[in-house]
Backbone:
C-alpha cells in the first residue's frame, strides 16, 4: 500500500511546515466501504483551517476530483452519509480531521501519494479567510433564509404524511388477514384521529392550552383561596358522609322480623 507525507504551509511566508499523511484507501477482504478503494485517497492530520475546498485545491494537480469529505474520525460505514438538508446538518467537529478525496481516475491517487510539496493552502488566487474576515463569513453563512426553510419543512412534512398514509393503508390491508403460518397480525389504532398538520390546527391547539392555563392560574391566584376551596370540599364530603350514616341507621331501624 502506497503511503506518503506531504508538507503543507498556510501561506508562502510561513517557515514551518505541517504534514499531511496520505495513503490509498483500502479495506479488508470481504468488507464493504462507501468509498471506492481504487479512486479514494485517505488523508490524515488535516488541520482545522483546511476546508474541503482547500483540499480540493491542493490535490487538483493530480487529476479531476469527484468529491472531498471531511470527518472527525475514519468513516467505516458501508453507505455514504449525506445530509438531506442544508439547514439541519451536523456541525463540523473542531480540531484535526481525516479526509476522503475521491478522484475520477485511479492514477490520480498514485500521483497524490507521490507529491513532494510544500503545498500552499492560502494563495493570492485562492485566499483563505482568517481572523475577523472568517468570523464575518461564518456569521453570514449561519443566517437562514426563512422562506427557503419553510419550503424545505413543508416538503419534509408532505413526504412524512405520505409515508404515514402508506403505512396506515398497509396495516389496514393486513388487518385480519392470516399469514402463511396462520397467524393474524393485530394492529392497534387510536380512537381519536390525529390532528391535521396545518398552521390553523396548531394555532387552535395553542389557544386551547392558553385558555386552560389561564383558568388554572385564575383558580390558584391566591394560595389562601386554594386552601379554603380544599377545606370547603372536605367539609362537604364529611357532611355527606354523616348524612349517609344516618340514612343507613334509619333503614336498619325500620327492618322488622316477620316470621309469618
Residues:
Amino acid at each position: 500500500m502506497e503511503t506518503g507525507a506531504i508538507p503543507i504551509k498556510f501561506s508562502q511566508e510561513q517557515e514551518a511546515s505541517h504534514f499531511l499523511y496520505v495513503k490509498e484507501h483500502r479495506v479488508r477482504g470481504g468488507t464493504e466501504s462507501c468509498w471506492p478503494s481504487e479512486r479514494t485517497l485517505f488523508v490524515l492530520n488535516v488541520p482545522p483551517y483546511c476546508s474541503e475546498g482547500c483540499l480540493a485545491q491542493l490535490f487538483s494537480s493530480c487529476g479531476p476530483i469527484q468529491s472531498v469529505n471531511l470527518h472527525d474520525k475514519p468513516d467505516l460505514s458501508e453507505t455514504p452519509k449525506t445530509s438531506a438538508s442544508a439547514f439541519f446538518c451536523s456541525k463540523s467537529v473542531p480540531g484535526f480531521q481525516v479526509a476522503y478525496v475521491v478522484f475520477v481516475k485511479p492514477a490520480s491517487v498514485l500521483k497524490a501519494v507521490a507529491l513532494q510539496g510544500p503545498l500552499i493552502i492560502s494563495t493570492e488566487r485562492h485566499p483563505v479567510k482568517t481572523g475577523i474576515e472568517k468570523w464575518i463569513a461564518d456569521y453570514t453563512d449561519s443566517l437562514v433564509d426563512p422562506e427557503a426553510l419553510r419550503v424545505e419543512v413543508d416538503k419534509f412534512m408532505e413526504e412524512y404524511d405520505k409515508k404515514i398514509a402508506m403505512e396506515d393503508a398497509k396495516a389496514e390491508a393486513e388487518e385480519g388477514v392470516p399469514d402463511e403460518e396462520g397467524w393474524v397480525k393485530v394492529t392497534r389504532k387510536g380512537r381519536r384521529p390525529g390532528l391535521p398538520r396545518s398552521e390553523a390546527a396548531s394555532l387552535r391547539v395553542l389557544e386551547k392550552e392558553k385558555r386552560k392555563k389561564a383558568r388554572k392560574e385564575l383558580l390558584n391566584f391566591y394560595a389562601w383561596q386554594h386552601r379554603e376551596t380544599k377545606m370547603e370540599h372536605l367539609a362537604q364530603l364529611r357532611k355527606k358522609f354523616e348524612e349517609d350514616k344516618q340514612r343507613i341507621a334509619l333503614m336498619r331501624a325500620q327492618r322488622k322480623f316477620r316470621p309469618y
